[in-house]
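Blackboard transcription, Thursday session:
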Amino acid sequence: MNVLPELPSYLNGEYQPLAEAKVSAMDRGFLFGDGVYELLPVYGRRLFRFEAHMDRLERSLSKLRIASPLLRAQWLEVARRLIASVDAEDQWVYLQVTRGVAPRNHVMPTDITPTLFAYSSPARPMTADERHHGVACITARDFRWERGDIKSTSLLGNVLARQMSADQGAVETIMLRDGFLTEAAASNVWIVKEGALLGPPKSEHVLEGIRVELLKELCEDVGIGYNLRPISEAELVGADEIILSSASKEVLAVTRLDHQPVGHGALHGKPGPVYARLYEAYQRAKLVQSI
Ligand SMILES: Cc1ncc(COP(=O)(O)O)c(C=O)c1O
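(Written on the board underneath:)
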């Protein structure tokens, strides 16, 4: 049953139950997917890496030429008010800005008021089984558009990609463009090679996940090598470990890729040591970096 949960929401300055939040059918978010969003994790009712999420929201807005509609302090106030009215210590705050309502025309209208929407919901963390055993992923060609750097609500490519893995009982679809790793449908992807964490370079094909910078810091803290550089399909398939990162997954070990166990030797098909250390470091960061 796809019944909307009873949650508070914010829409254009008004707080109201999520099920009652309504926007115009002429909203460009609805007609064109002309908008951006963020998903911020909340631990113990405190926002994790809030400033980094706001930096990215502002970058995404500016790439779409939408003027930033709220100050950070105002977003913070909205988020905190929503968090306060949800009955859970750990939550996910969703923020969305669309260009707004206008007669349908591909050309960006001027003098238009953005539509602002936000809600918070109880976090749905990975299960103990997924943490303990790792998860399965499949691979696919990256058939999405070439502006994966924008955290856009135009997510049809990601929806199609994610469904491919869902259809096979896997948690993510890891994508390759021209034989090189980009990202997964809703996560960044990392491999471990010779003890170091490797991710693809920053580009217009990959979303700069908030955890890209966080993992760099965590690797420095715990003494794990970290490098962003092109990763070939052969390196992905032959990796010692594969790790996903996202707001909702934090870091997550991938232990089966296209139905084959990941890794070598005793760790074949099991979460590896780099994952374990990063997961621990991540849990510590949550305690000290949430506001
Ligand atoms: C396509 C895509 N790549 C990467 C990520 C990871 O980004 P973050 O760490 O900011 O959650 C996401 C998050 O939802 C995503 O949708």
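Lecturer's comment: The mean pLDDT is 96.
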